[in-house]
Design brief:
The protein is an alpha+beta fold and 399 residues long. Strands 1, 2, 3, 4, 5, 6, 7, 8 and 9 form a nine-stranded mixed beta sheet that branches. It has twelve helices and nine strands. The relative contact order is 0.11. A hairpin with a 2-residue loop joins strand 2 and strand 3. Helix 10 packs across helix 12. It folds into three domains: 114 residues, Orthogonal Bundle (Butyryl-Coa Dehydrogenase, subunit A, domain 1); 100 residues, Butyryl-CoA Dehydrogenase, subunit A, domain 2 (Beta Barrel); 154 residues, Butyryl-CoA Dehydrogenase, subunit A, domain 3.
Amino acid sequence: MRLHEKISDHALSLRDPHKGMLLGIRELAPEITARAAEIEAARRLPPDLVERLKSIGIFRMFVPRSHGGLELDLPAGLEVMKALTRLDGSIGWIAIVAGVGGLFAAASRPELYQCIYQNGPDVAICGSSQPAGTAERVADGYRITGRWPFASGCTHADWIGGFCVVTDNGKPVPGPHGKPQVRAVLLPARDWHIEDTWHAAGLKGTGSHHVTLREAMVPDIHIFDLEAAPRLSGPLYQTLRQWLPLLHGAFSAGMAEGVVDDLLALAHTGRQQLYAATPLRESEIFQFGLGRISADLRAAQAFHEVQVASHWRRALAGTLNDEDLMTEGARSAVWLATTCVGIADACFALAGSSAVYDSSPLQRRLRDLHVGAQHAHAQQRQYVDVGKLALRRSAERDG
């Protein structure tokens, strides 16, 4: 790249951080593609690649400008996540975790928040959403014990969080609606123990190990309620729960775009399958299958775009914290996961026997999408709540 182009690109990054991030991702794309096997084998992102992502702004994209962050609009942040996911599933997943981490920390106490970002906005925060720990109330804080799964990105994290059931004398403390009270704990990564457990079918490079705490004495400052009133102003920080299904939808859509890219690249090599009369790209069977896949992909892209736009309008209006909207987001996440897994399956089948080798990106996409679809936000059981909402709205409309 010429000097004047570098200067121009730097100016663009300062003027429009979102476009600057997308430009940085395009520049990094060849290296990401070339290192896919290395990332899988290591079961984590290489430290130098984490630093490259940090320089692009991945860890600061949802940090407020008041603390040196970019404070991107949610649609812009999701576009960044999709661009990385389109290149590599594990890197895309880590980018999503980076965004979630910034939003998760925004719910913490002001004193803790200042501590997290005291040295700048490029802080890697990860954790587990399962309430797999207990927080026993003691005189000067809490005694935390637990073992949390799926802590994606823990190998390069600066801070790690988890959810705990609050207990008193060993018994759960009742919270709203009679359910046990749940609180988040957020501590420096050095305070956690990482168990090497991430031997998985897909998303191998995410380093999603178990993390543990054993009888850790934790001051009050490190414990907070994720459902409490927002501590930061702005549409991004009203609630984290509403954003999570949309972030998972960005992963599914980005992966589907990537797997279609990989199939097209294979077709353009001129490959001709055994017993086939013509090369892939000239085969009407292949063209028919690709046509159906492209229609499914466009439907997935459009559904995600519409859902994101709807949520963002509500965020700008200050009406995001709505259970019905949570159900709508879940509907999109589940449908997108199912549809995009179907796209990957169809691409894998069309590619033929060459797709079975470890060297093929298609088999990696297939595994990554199937593993992503196992996430709680993509589970089909959530269609129950979607159906209940449809029935209630129909009754209200007819009544």
